[in-house]
Amino acid sequence: MTNVPNSRLEAPESSAVEAALAGAERKGFRLAVIGRTCALVAIAFFYLTALRYPNNIYVAMLILTSAAVGLAPLELVGRRYERIGRYAFFAFDATVISAILAVAPVSSSGDVPQNLVFLSNRPEYYFVLVAISILALSPALVLWTGLCAVVGLTGATAWVMAGMERIVRLGDLPQPFSREDYLAIVLNPDFLGIAFRVN
C-alpha cells in the first residue's frame, strides 16, 4: 500500500468546504435580500398610516420602489458579478439612508431645522441594514456594510453641519451644569450632538 501525500487528500476536501461555504453565502444573501424587502414593506405601511395624506403616499411609494429595486441583485446570483453585486447592494442602501438623513425634510412644512433629523428614528435604519447584512453569512460583507454606514453617517452629519449657521454642542455646557443648563443645550434647535453621532 502506497502512501498518498496529504496535499492530495486535502485538496478535494478543502474545495468541497469552499463550495459549501460559497453555497451558504449565496443562500444567506438571498435571505438578506428577502429580509430587506420584508422590512421595507413593513416600514412603508408604517409611514402610510403614520404620516398625513399626500405625504404618506409619496413616502410609502418611494420606500416600495426602493424595495423593488433591491430585488435586482437576486438576478446576479450564480453569475460573474455576484460578489461585487452584494457589496454594491449594501453600499447603495447605506447611501440612500445617508441621503434621507442629509436632505429629506424632517417636516412637510419645511420649517424644522435639518439637524433635528438626528432626534428622529431615521439613523436607526443603519442598524437594520447591518443586521440584514449578517444574514449573508459573510464577515467581510458585514464589515463592509458597517464601514458604509459609518462613512454615510459621517457624510450626512457633515452635510447638515455645513448648512447650519450656528452649532450648539455638549461642549457648550458650563462646568458643573444644572438640569436647566443641560436642557437649554440639548433642546436648543441649533444643537448637534457630535458625541452622539460618534457613538
Features:
mainly alpha, 65% helix, 7 helices
**Structure summary, number of beta strands:** 0
Determine Rg (CA atoms, Å): 23 Å
Strand content: under 5%
- Helix count from the secondary structure assignment: 7
Please, what is the average pLDDT? 85
Overall structural class, as computed from helix and strand content, comes to mainly alpha
Shape: globular
Q: H/E order of the elements?
A: HHHHHHH
Domain unit count: 2
Task: List low-confidence stretches.
Answer: none
Distance from N terminus to C terminus (CA atoms, Å) equals: 64 Å
**Strand count, sense and closure of the main sheet?**
none
The helicity comes to: 55-70%
Structure description:
The protein has helices spanning 6-50, 55-69, 82-103, 125-134, 139-162, 179-186, 194-198. The protein folds into two domains: 23-164, no CATH class; 167-199, no CATH class. The protein starts with 5 loop residues before the first helix and ends with a helix. Helices cover 65% and strands 0% of the residues. The chain is an all-alpha fold and 199 residues long.
